[in-house]
Amino acid sequence: MQEALLLLVLIIYPATVVLATSSGPPISLPGCPDKCGNVSIPYPFGIGDDCAATSHNRYFALMCNNSLQPPRPMFGDPSIAVEVIDISLEHGEVRVYGDVSYICFTSNTTVSDSFDVGLSLEITQLIPSTRNRFTVIGCSALGIIQGNTPDPYVAGCYSYCQDIKSTSDGASCAGMGCCETTIPPNLTYFVTQLLNQSSVWPFNPCFYAMLVEEGWYSFRRQDLGGHLGFMKEKANRGVPVVSDWAIRNGSCPKDGAKAPKDYACVSSNSYCVNAGNGPGYLCNCSEGYEGNPYLPNGCQDIDECELRKQDVKYKTLYPCENGHCRNTPGSYRCKCWAGTRSDGTNSGCRPVLSQAEKVVIGLSGSAMVLISLACLVVMKSQRRKYKKEKDEYFKQNGGLKLYDEMRSRQVETIHILTEKEIKKATDNFSEDRVLGCGGHGMVYRGTLDDNKEVAIKKSKVIDDDCREEFVNEIIILSQINHRNIVRLLGCCLEVDVPMLVYEFISNGTLFEFLHDYDHKSPIPLDLRLKIATQSAEALAYIHSSTSRTILHGDVKSLNILLDNEYNAKVSDFGASALKSMDKNDFIILIQGTLGYIDPESFVSHRLTDKSDVYSFAVVLLELMTRKKAIYIDISNEKKALSHTFILMFHQNELRDMLDSEIVDDEVMVVLEKLAELVMQCLNPKGDERPTMKDVAERLQILRRLHLQLVTKTQPIQAHYSYGGPSASVPSDEKGYQSTETSKLVLEIDLAR
Description:
- The protein is α+β, with helices and mostly antiparallel strands.
């Protein structure tokens, strides 16, 4: 029987998970319902006119569907009309029922529920929580989730099974019958479409893909059989999805600053915290108070003494042994009875010492010595514990492996910095020092003691895979010495989150240079060829000029930096491999960025040097067209730049695809040769693509040809003063004297 390979991409409704609010103080505005059926509706959410904080966001307004029993709250906006399960003020979460994407096959028909439109959540207060998992159910099913974080993002997983007997109920979704993967924070845009379909296993007619609350789904073999069995039995109302909400149109006032007029934390006993996922803030009641901080006088004092009388568990939470409990605003006092005194905690009493005990305490010069010695022992023990903890972090973050590599390769350029030095360089990781945030970590701008400016990369996630990736990046970069590759200066491994220290590259990324519409200026063709050539030479170097072949694995314009003279610097080797994979090796989860991924590697699960060649071809297209790898055309549809370029090249419509700034009859031969090179690099078969060394050589020839065409018989001095580059043509090209153009064109053809 032929196996079926199903590609699904899931569109995510704005939804999320949360705990129900506690009973007690009012949670809604006066005169407004505080419940819909069994679900509490706390303000700023509300049902009815003037019952929700629509001035902060119209999505706070809900509707109650009374046609169902019990009634169910729904988001009232038609674009996100989904059922709300519960809302939490404390955690800033909403839990809803989300849809399931599915497709079923029978002998004659196909039933599907797939989408091919995008959905932007940037105007709402809802952002999907990282406590969700993207889950796929089925045999031979490959599910993909893609979107913006706000950077382009793609991830997925593959589910397989030999037959229905090889699966087991209750198993984790690790690939047998179902699979799952995480999503990043700040995910604001999603898209879904059915990319491919074919025949299926006879016992598995339906495939499903969904974003669902972590831990909700447990695999069952019966979900693989029957027509829409999973939808009918377990997901007839949808699946629970968790979203983070916040007051998105503002931020917490800085210390001493006056709160704005629309400040949402209106209760006198409340405070503001920045949202954990996305922009904005949340309000919490101060310690010792409970209720709704978004309502005037919504946070009310907790009577700890009364709670002690009602439930024994509160006696442990609010201790007052051998004393009398008295409630105070935001706290309580434990007044000691006669014959007792405070135990030093202000929440407990103990008997007054007997005369004999006083004598024992008064005796002791020796007791004081013993106490002092005990303190010294404790202090030394704490120091040893602290040092041991740092040593453990160093080992688990790969420090020993790094030392071995440094000794074996005699690497002297990598410095190991302490946590204290890193904190000093970044002003204790100040938000003002943040340069950017990627899928794997935060990047800070720092200044070392010698006043050298650096970029410090700090991982977000603390797991073994992430630590291995950081050590991998250190080892790879320690072998590289090239003027067009960002230089690694040092690392810090004695903390739970490992950090890398790079040279600081001041002019941002090539992606920003090409696509920043706020500062978009003309970019001459010779500068574009310079950046392309330098980037290609850097990749050719890591492929063939180091002791072991290094594959970058994530070539894109975001990973090419520009210095003050607009020289290219290839960066971010976190996804790199030290050598080409054996033919039996494969990648479990596809890494890379949507629009740049080599389709051959995506199918074969093998990374090769030709995978970098394919991704670099997309970067060349960005330089030629000034369009993003995934762009929106004039009909407002999302298109893959590589796919569109191939179609227009074969239709002889190259001029229409190129950036109008560089289209000129005098240099058209350069652009045509560059387009031919791109087409060879985009060849579906990796073996038929040129090597990066070939690509770099041909780009160098094209730079010479362009110089020949624009200078004719005169030397050239090129300067850029439009707020962009300020550089001149490389010294080996200044004064280049004219020869026949046809000779250079012939040289390009021979290089192919």
